[in-house]
Design a protein that fits this description.
Number of helices: 9
Low-confidence stretches: 1-6
Largest sheet: 6 strands, parallel
CATH superfamily: HAD superfamily/HAD-like
CATH topology: Rossmann fold
Number of strands: 8
Radius of gyration: 17 Å
CATH class: Alpha Beta
Strand order of the largest sheet: 3-2-1-6-7-8
Length: 220
């Protein structure tokens, strides 16, 4: 999705993780609750975000527990997704400065796309859930958005927008975000796991995305 990224931008480019960054929840856990697999999925998610498990394999394991769910469950999950405090201000101020904002997620387009459109995000990339006969099959459709894919998305969006990497900032909370944070000029650990705090350029511990603005010179 490229909602507003047309032509060249003077930047900055801000790229956000989705779960526990753009939104407060881990979206897959909203689906797992309906599937009766919440405890297992939460445990696997936590281990993956701490960097203890391969992300792609952990995602396949978690998605497998969703097999048989009616696709209608995704609508109810979307209704329970809560944008993180300060996200509207961050997007508005970056846009006012001539910049762009994207989200890249190890979650799912089916849940994220409507929110990304409402927020006015310029880019959105995530995984897709395979369905058949109106139900989830328990498999991911297509290549998995993992750590390297997140970093590649940031680089691609910067290039297509004419924004130098020196004008990019990435925000995330889990081990799957580390390559993206390392690719950006400034990598921000947002209410993050210890492994991310240790490797990011800066850490923000207040769950308010407007706290990113001073790092961009857009407040104060």
């Amino acid at each position: 999705m490229t909602a507003g990224a047309v032509g060249r931008s003077r930047g900055p480019l801000v790229v956000l993780d989705a779960d526990s960054t753009l939104i407060r929840e881990e979206a897959i856990e909203l689906l797992a609750e309906a599937a009766g697999s919440l405890e297992h999925v939460t445990e696997v998610t936590e281990r993956a975000m701490r960097g203890e498990l391969d992300f792609a394999e952990s995602l396949r394991e978690r998605v497998a527990t969703l097999a048989g769910l009616d696709v209608g469950v995704m609508a109810s999950a979307r209704e329970r997704m809560t944008p993180t405090d300060g996200v509207h201000e961050l997007i508005d101020r970056v846009h006012a400065a001539g910049g762009l904002v994207g989200v890249v997620s190890g979650g799912f387009h089916e849940l994220l796309d409507p929110l990304a459109q409402r927020l006015g995000l310029d880019f959105c990339r995530a995984n897709r859930l395979e369905t058949a006969d109106g139900r989830l099959t328990g498999r991911v459709d297509g290549d998995i958005v993992d750590a390297s894919a997140k970093a590649a998305a940031l680089e691609e969006w910067a290039a297509v927008s004419g924004i130098a990497l020196e004008r990019t900032l990435a925000v995330g909370d889990g081990a799957n975000d580390l390559e993206m944070l390392g690719k950006a000029a400034l990598g921000v650990a947002f209410c993050a796991k210890p492994v991310v705090r240790a490797q990011a350029d800066i850490a923000i511990d207040t769950p308010d995305l407007s706290a990113v603005l001073p790092l961009l010179g857009l407040r104060g």
